[in-house]
Design a protein that fits this description.
21 helices, about 25% helix, alpha+beta, five-stranded antiparallel sheet
């Protein structure tokens, strides 16, 4: 929401400085995002007079101008066709920053002649797109004076950020009202008064909605104007609209834009001569289209409110008008529309059509229902004042929505919620200054919100209003009672597990990402079955329409965006929720990650290698180990879901509990996600891990044996279908007290082995705890290992 300081003071009588106003706005919850002080940026520009202007000796289209700046006379090379002796214009000396061209002037030579400064056009000054010549000022303009101050455009522009509930402050008057309530001035009364009509309107309003959808447009008011002149609007309207980034068009259009920003009352004017029959508020119909004022054609449907005449839609209700019945400089007769619309329907239609108009912005936040009446009167007076003509009697359809119901604010509720002791009488004064109707009771106050505050829903909202006007900076600091030594750790076991997992994955070179918990329906289908309960009824956008069944689609989308921007080998992980169904237990806490393309960067010392299932397995085991899982007891299987490569993936289980998946993603999935592969991925279900029974926070004691470990290698010949993990588990379980580690160091198939057989080389680490191992003890363990592998896996010692 943008406005100028002078515009604000049009409603607020105050002596406060710009700094005081912006500080107070932020304290009121109207966060100031930016202040553009044009007086500071235009300070170097002065009013100057051209003493002489002669032809440049080396250029046909340039002139040598001697300029009187008030302090000195300088030579300027100028190419403007209207540069001549005696003219007064705007002079920028050397060293000035020119906002319209984003340049800083320097003394220079142009075609061999010195030039010190510039005579500026309106585009170079950044005040319009006009650049046909330099600015011509009247003879009364004082030479040497600051041009911005003389022209009255030394007006700071304030830009504030509004929360969605503060639609009342999507207007300059609404902002002024809050500042006045906070004691920073007095709100000027809004001119009221009826503007009687002198004839019966030839156009009437109709509403054609099903009874159950009558709230789509509760009320609409209109007025016919004849014999108007759609000339330029007054300078003060044009200046302020231009200052906030709106282009002045004509008096009729500028009046509607002015009232939208000034009073938060969007409205629309139709060229009455282009309207056929009466105007009807109704829902759109399948196949209907409209050519809108933004020069785009939109397809309408049965959920969208349209304003139609006998020929079809002439406007999208609450969002944008159509070009067919728009006003031009030739418009003579006008019909004014002032309506109320359902905020939810406006928001959904605007999102579906992709239109972000000023009208939609206000209607979807809720506007003052009473503005249909006073908005029509104020617009009538402005049209008659600036465009002339005559106004008809008011025509309307529908009824005014009921007024806000009273809410009760208990006497102790402010202190309970904020810790600040504010008296009932002081609260009453604050609420009255905000426009609330207040009646004090013995145990609190009964409060009725004004019509422009549809966001006030309960007692907590009233407390918020009181405390923000009272001042968040006045909330006293309170020392935490007692000592911190007796407090328990603020993080529970799940939080500690998540933190350790996050650190472990970051330590392996993966970068943490935070993505939406929503994804595209087509992408979600690649990573799980469609669940109706996970489809959003009101999505943020079409590509965020379902709750993600896995974190991998959102990570893959992030990978695709990085690759499209030239980021090589992006490595990402995320720790967050994914959704299996809409039941209370359908949300899982998951750590997932992806590695893409090359496992290592290009280097002279080693050959490049693409990521594979082993990389994914390493990440998965590292995450589980950090989370506290007994990784030595994990069981691997080949039943990874369909989005993994069937021959290069696996599942991890602890007993009957599924802990996660790892492997390379299926090539078809990678292709549909627009990712350049291969992709090695993993998913770890952190909430499937049992919490440690240890209620304390002490680490496990370090158990280091003083005796030398013994290493023995074994090579077993097994069937080709036997998984190496089964061999490792069998060897490890042969003697849990002595065997400290088992690793696979070789896999061989080929010459010397029968067809269908393979050789697995296993290194076993024996770690004695009480005494050095004897040969007999070592041989005993070795024989037991060989026997167990033979019995359980059919393996023979090679």
């Amino acid at each position: 929401m943008k406005f100028t300081l002078s515009w604000l003071k049009y409603h607020l009588m105050t002596e406060a400085t710009l700094g005081e106003i912006t500080d107070k706005l932020s304290m009121l919850g109207l966060e100031v995002e930016h202040v553009d002080d044009r007086a500071a940026s235009l300070k170097p520009f002065k009013i100057a007079r051209v003493i002489s202007a002669v032809q440049h000796p080396n250029a046909d289209r340039l002139r040598l101008c001697v300029v009187d700046t008030g302090d000195d006379q300088v030579q300027v090379v100028c190419g403007a066709p209207n540069a001549r002796a005696g003219i007064k214009g705007v002079f920028a000396p050397s060293g000035s920053y020119i906002p319209g061209t984003d340049l800083t002037l320097k003394p220079s030579k142009i075609r061999g002649e010195e030039s010190n400064g510039m005579l500026c056009s309106e585009r170079e000054m950044g005040i319009s797109e006009e650049h046909g010549g330099i600015i011509e000022l009247p003879d009364s303009a004082p030479v040497g004076q600051n041009w911005a101050e003389w022209a009255g455009i030394n007006d700071p522009i304030i830009d504030i950020a509004l929360t969605p509930n503060r639609g009342d402050c999507a207007s300059v008057r609404g902002v002024a009202r809050d500042l006045a309530a906070a004691g920073l001035g007095h709100l000027r009364p809004l001119p009221r008064g009826d503007a009687p009509g002198c004839f019966v309107s030839p156009i009437n309003w109709k509403r054609d909605f099903p009874e159950a959808a009558a709230d789509a447009c509760p009320m609409v008011v209109g007025r016919y104007f004849r014999n108007v002149k759609n000339i330029e609007s007054p300078d003060f309207i044009q200046d302020r609209l231009r200052a906030i980034g709106l282009k002045p068009i004509s008096a009729l259009v500028d009046i509607t834009n002015w009232l939208t920003y000034d009073l938060g009352r969007p409205l629309h004017v139709f060229d009455a001569d282009k309207v056929h029959g009466d105007l009807v508020m109704r829902f759109g119909r399948t196949g209907e289209t409209i050519d809108a004022l933004d020069d785009r054609t939109y397809e309408l449907d049965e959920t969208m409110i349209v304003i139609a005449d006998d020929t079809g839609p002439q406007g999208i209700g609450g969002i944008m008008g159509g070009i067919e019945a728009s006003c031009t400089e030739n418009t003579k007769n006008v019909f004014l529309e002032v309506a109320l619309f359902d905020p939810i329907r406006i928001a959904k239609a605007g999102r579906q059509l992709g239109i972000g108009s000023d009208a939609r912005y206000r209607f979807e936040r809720g506007i003052d229902p009473e503005s249909v009446q006073w908005g029509c009167e104020i617009a009538t007076r402005m049209i008659l004042k600036f465009c002339g003509g005559e106004a008809s009697e008011i025509v309307s359809s529908g009824v005014m929505p009921p007024k806000n119901a009273p809410k009760f604010l208990r006497a102790d509720r402010i202190k309970t919620l904020t810790g600040v002791d504010i008296s009932i009488s002081q609260s009453s004064v604050i609420l009255k200054n905000l426009g609330f109707i207040v009646e004090e009771k013995s145990d609190g106050i009964e409060v009725t919100a004004p019509s422009w505050r549809p966001d006030i829903d309960g007692e907590a909202d009233l407390v918020e209003e009181v405390i923000r006007i009272y001042g968040f900076d006045k909330i006293p600091e309170t020392t935490f009672p007692g000592t911190l030594s007796g407090l328990r750790a603020p993080r529970n076991g799940f939080q500690l597990r998540a933190e350790r997992t996050r650190r472990a994955l970051a330590g392996r070179g993966l970068i943490e990402a935070v993505t939406y918990s929503f994804t595209d329906a087509d992408q979600a289908a690649l990573f799980g079955d469609a669940v109706p309960g996970l489809v959003l009824t009101n999505p943020i956008s079409r590509d965020l329409s379902v709750m993600r069944p896995s974190i991998l689609p959102t990570l893959c989308s992030a990978i695709a965006r990085n690759q499209a921007r030239g980021v090589p080998n992006p490595l990402l992980f995320e720790l967050g929720p994914q959704y299996e169904d809409d039941s209370p237990g359908g949300q899982r806490l998951v750590a997932a990650g992806v590695r893409v393309q090359n496992a290592v960067s290009r280097h002279w010392s080693e050959s490049p290698r693409e990521v594979d299932v082993i990389d994914a397995k390493g990440d998965a085991f590292a995450a589980l180990d950090a989370a506290g899982a007994p990784v030595d007891n994990l069981r691997l299987s080949r039943d990874a879901p369909r989005w993994y490569h069937p021959g290069r993936s696996g599942s991890l289980r602890l007993g009957k509990s599924l802990l996660g998946y790892f492997g390379e993603l299926h090539p078809l999935v990678i292709d549909k996600m627009d990712v350049i592969g291969p992709v090695a991925a993993f998913e770890i279900f952190l909430d499937a891990l049992p919490l440690s029974r240890n209620k304390g926070h002490a680490r496990k004691l370090l158990d280091v044996s003083p005796f030398q470990p013994v290493y023995r290698d074994f090579a077993f010949i097994v069937d080709q279908g036997v998984e190496s993990q089964k061999i490792l588990n069998t060897v490890r379980n042969a003697d849990r007290t002595l065997i400290a580690d088992v690793t696979l160091f070789d896999v061989y198939q080929g010459k010397g082995l029968d067809i269908g057989k393979k050789s697995l080389g296993v290194e076993v680490t024996l770690q004695p705890k009480s005494a050095t191992l004897t040969d007999d003890e070592i041989n005993s363990v070795s024989e037991k290992i060989i026997s167990e592998v033979k019995e359980k896996n059919g393996g023979d010692l090679r």
